[in-house]
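Is it possible to get an amino acid sequence alongside its tokenized fold?
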Amino acid sequence: MPRNSLRILHGALYAADLTPRFGTEPGKLRPVFVVQSDLLNLTGHPSTWVLPCTTRLTGESLLRVELPKGVAGNSRACEVMIDQSRAIDNRRFKRLIGRLPEPFLREVKIKLGKLSEW
């Protein structure tokens, strides 16, 4: 399978195909937020650390960051799932959706830090 030619960047939202899913993992084509540092992204590393998003809104909590419709190019309101951190093969990325504005990026980092005790 050919390598993905998309440029993967920290803080961006991409559409990614997470099929097949296992157990409680999110599956299907969905937005993912790139957590991984550009120090690694720009080296051509074959996988990327992401947080999947969901349109099943549960409301603000330690486990979610709400992204209103259009805030990062997203066509629907969604939530970044802080508790579903995973690395995916870069061939799963389909297209760039947009970049998260700084306030949302900061909230993701704070909540991820709390969950991981950084």
